[in-house]
Amino acid sequence: MNLIGIVGTNAPTSTNRQLLQYMQRHFKNQATITIQEIADFPAFDEPEDHRAPVGIAELSAAIAAADGVIIATPEYDHSIPAALKSLLEWLSYTDRPLIDKPVLVVGASYGALGTSRAQGHLRQILDAPELKARLMPGAEFLLAHSQQAFTADGDLAKPEDAAALDEYVAQFLEFVEITKQLLKGRSVQTQQHKQFAWDK
To answer: Which of 33, 47, 186, 188 counts the highest number of beta carbons within 10 A?
Structure first.
C-alpha cells in the first residue's frame, strides 16, 4: 500500500515531522509512506487559469496515484497552520486529488491536549465539497507533550502511545481497502464531484 505523508507545517523543526518519520519506519512492512514537505510551496493566490505551481502539481499527482494520505498537523491558535491551509486551498482549486481519497489525520503538540482542536478543524475543511476526502470516523491520534514523546532513536517513548498508533493505523489500512471496494465502478461520480463549483 502506498501512502503520502504530509508534514502539516513549514517549521524547520517539528514533532509532527518526527511522528511521520516514525510511522514511515515502524509501518514499513504494511505500507510505503512517502513524506512530503510543504515549506517551499507558495501561498495560495487563486490564479485565473486554475493551474497549480509545479511542486504542488507534482504533489497533487502523487496524491491521486496513492492509496491514501496521512496528514500530521500541529495546532496553532486552535487551528491548523496557515501553510497547510494554503496547500489544501491549492488542491481544492486545481486538480482536487483528495476527492474520495482515504485520509488519516494525526497530530503532535507540545501541550497536554494534543492537537484536538486542529484535528477537528482539519476534518471540517477536508469535508468541503472541493476536497471531500474520505475520513475514517470515530478515531483520533493525539500525541501530547510531544517534545518528550520520542526517544533519542526517534521511536515513541511511551508503549501506550505506540500501541494506540498501531491500532489506529491498522484500522486505517482496513478503511482504505473498504473504501476501494465501496468506490469500485464509481469513477464517474468522482469526476462529477471534481466539477463542483459554487457559482453554478
So the answer is: 33
